[in-house]
Design goal:
Elements lengths: L1 E6 L4 H11 L6 E3 L2 E8 L2 E8 L4 E5 L3 H8 L5 E4 L1 E2 L2 E2 L4 H11 L4 E2 L2 E6 L2 E6 L9 E5 L4 E8 L2 E14 L1
Parallel strand pairs: 3-9, 10-14
Antiparallel strand pairs: 1-5, 1-6, 2-5, 3-4, 7-8, 10-11, 12-13, 13-14
Length: 167
């Protein structure tokens, strides 16, 4: 099952490295999904990899209670997301959505598409087929905002999208 741990923003990679070195069992996995977006740096468009969910790390484990006690050794961690006294895993729908977007390497690549009338058609990339979730497109910054339910609430996720034309 997938669990989400809240950490100090900016410490995600440090926490992941620390957990992989000293806390994780072979059957467990820790990661933070990333996204590839285009940024204009000194007048040149460059692909940059940034965190999809800043301030959060994801753990895949079958024994969250045991992981909870092992994580107490990491002072930088703040908390495992809970509902009351119970640790709450992501729903299978949330797991599937994040897996579909980010794939095995937990990295959301940029998508490409075009605009036809008032519709967006994604021709390739991880958001192909998810056009209905797009709430905003910024053609200048080459990104799209998707609105979905994650962590028990409505969330907006920004992913890379290049619109290559209009029809």
């Amino acid at each position: 099952m997938w669990y989400v741990i809240q950490v100090k923003t900016g410490d995600e990679n440090k926490i992941i490295t620390l957990c992989k070195r000293s806390l994780m069992k072979e059957s467990e996995e820790v990661f933070t999904p990333t996204r590839v977006i285009t940024k204009r740096i000194k007048g040149i468009d460059m692909s940059v990899e940034t965190l999809l969910f800043p301030g959060y790390c994801f753990f895949i484990t079958e024994d969250i209670e045991d992981l909870f006690f092992r994580l107490k050794a990491v002072k930088e961690l703040t908390k495992i997301l809970r509902m009351g006294d119970d640790f709450v895993p992501l729903t299978s729908k949330e797991e599937t959505f994040i897996s579909r977007l980010s794939g095995r390497n937990h990295r959301v690549e940029a998508s490409t598409g075009y605009i036809e009338g008032d519709r967006v058609i994604i021709t390739n990339g991880p958001i192909k087929g998810l056009e209905g979730l797009i709430t905003k497109i910024n053609r200048h910054k080459k990104c799209a905002v998707l609105k979905t339910e994650l962590f028990g609430r409505s969330s907006e996720i920004t992913v890379g999208l290049e619109i290559v034309g209009k029809r």
